[in-house]
Every structure is written in structure tokens, then in C-alpha cells.
Specification:
InterPro entries: TPR-like_helical_dom_sf
Number of helices: 8
Keywords: Repeat, TPR repeat
CATH architecture of the largest domain: Alpha Horseshoe
Oligomer: single chain
Distance between the termini: 48 Å
Pfam families: TPR_12
Largest sheet: none
CATH topology of the largest domain: Serine Threonine Protein Phosphatase 5, Tetratricopeptide repeat
Radius of gyration: 18 Å
Protein name: KIF-binding protein
Amino acid sequence: MYRESLRLQRDVLKRENHSHVAEVMNYLGICLSTRKGFNAVNQSLFRQAESLLIEAKTMRELVLGTLHVDYATSLNNLANFYKSALQMLSSRHTDGPDSKLFGWGGVLLKSDDQIMDLYEESLAIRKMLSPDQMHPHVAQSLNNMALFLSHTLDKPPRKYVHCHDKDYLSAEQYCVEALKIRKQYYNHDNDRVAQTLLNLGRIYVAQVLSI
């Protein structure tokens, strides 16, 4: 459906650099790179997803500018993508001369700092667009940063990647802040609040297991 929508946007409506085209590419990229449970994504589709997400980000920057919620979303989605490239590779225990250069599907790996830069840029834009900095998009960025630092997302139960103590402290801080926003924006019985509490619990467990 996303592919057909993209075809219609370009071939029928003759749209190229357009926010609607970028939106479809963004969703298609997410769809192609999303895991089903703990199973890795098809490597060819994963490479296609990277191209779509990068093109969507570039188009949004051109059409909408960098101080826009959709551009911030593209940054966040790219960070999630490169995090998945690292995690799916490590889950398969891939060794070899290129294992430190390429992630899942042959995607050029990004360093932890590069991935965090994407998250932080997305967070900064979302905060600027939210007068009180208490918007759910801000909470989403904080939550994603916490999960990346703790390396607990998309991992089978009781398997964690080692992190430095400062990463756990930062992860806890981000998660607590995300929880505060979600509790204020939603009621306490909301599933997003429940998920954030679960993530915070995972961070505490991972911290204990790393000792």
C-alpha cells in the first residue's frame, strides 16, 4: 500500500519534492525496517529502508526546513534505524573483517555518538516547538534516548549489552523525565505510561546485572 501510494504521488500527481511524498517514504522505510518479534528483517529490505528514510529526511529539510516537527521525526526514525542495524547484527553474533564497519544488511554502521547526535537533534527541535517542553513528542525522544543508552530495547529477556555507569545514570534521567511528561499528558492508566514504567524497570535491572 505504501509503495502504491508513493507511485501515485510521483507518477499520477507528479509530486517530487513534496511533504506528502516524504511522509510516504518515511512510513515505507519504517515498515521495511521493523522487526517481527526477535526475528531480523530481510537484509535487502533493510537496505531499501535506509535509502527511504534518508531521502525522506533530506526532502523534509528542503521543503519544510529544519525547525519542523516532521524533520525532527525523520531524525528520530533514522536514529532508531541505525540502532536496529547494530542490535540485529549483534543478535546474530556476526564476526569478520567487516563486522565493525557494516551493520545488518550491509548498512554502514554509525557510532553510538552519531546515533545519540540524531536523537539529541530531534529532541532539541521538539523542545523548541513545545513552549512548555511537555509534549508527547518530547517524551518519545527522551524515552528512545534512554532505551538506546541502556541497550535493553529489542533484546530477548535477561540479555543485556554492557554499558558504562554514566550511561545508566543518563538513561534513568531521560526515562524519569519521559515518565513525568507522559503522566501529565495522559492519565496514569495509559499504556504509554505503563510502557515507560516498564522501560525504567529494565534500566534498573540492567544496571544491577552489569555489576
